[in-house]
Amino acid sequence: MSVLDNFRDWKQFLGERVEQAKQAGMESDTIENVAYQIGHYLADQVDPKNDQERLLKQLWDAGDEQQQRALASMMVKLVENDANQNR
């Protein structure tokens, strides 16, 4: 089963990767840039597996680069907030 099959699993996976990047000393701007690149790849190469992913793809496709970067940044903040709430 892929982490993309379940949105909760995807958020947890992304949150873990963000935390690892921070622990490795990666700057927030760099993390957000990587999130944008991942979002671009997922939108172009991966079929959405659930309603949440379909919505994210529709939002991604509707936006210009600045809006896509904002969406990627918001996803990073979402998983950071989830991680902080689970501590």
CATH architecture field: Orthogonal Bundle
Number of strands: 0
The rough form would be described as globular
User: What portion of the residues fall into strands of 2 or more residues?
Assistant: under 5%
The profile of the biggest β sheet is: none
Q: Domains counted in the coordinates: how many?
A: 1
Rounded Rg: 13 Å
Structural class from helices and strands?
A: mainly alpha
* The CATH C-level class name: Mainly Alpha
Helix count equals 4
Distance between the termini: 26 Å
**Low-confidence regions:** none
CATH-assigned fold name = Cytochrome Bc1 Complex, Chain D, domain 2
Give helix and strand order, one letter per element, not per position: HHHH
Q: Taking all residues together, what is the mean pLDDT?
A: 88
Helix-residue proportion: over 70%
Could you explain how this protein is built, in words?
The chain has 87 residues and is an all-alpha fold. It has one domain (7-82): Cytochrome Bc1 Complex, Chain D, domain 2 (Orthogonal Bundle), CATH 1.10.760. Helix content is 78%, strand content 0%. It has helices at residues 7-23, 28-45, 51-62, 65-85. Helix 1 packs across helix 4 (65-85) and helix 2 (28-45) packs across helix 4. It is globular and about 30 Å long. 11% of the residues are buried. The model has no long low-confidence stretch (mean pLDDT 88).
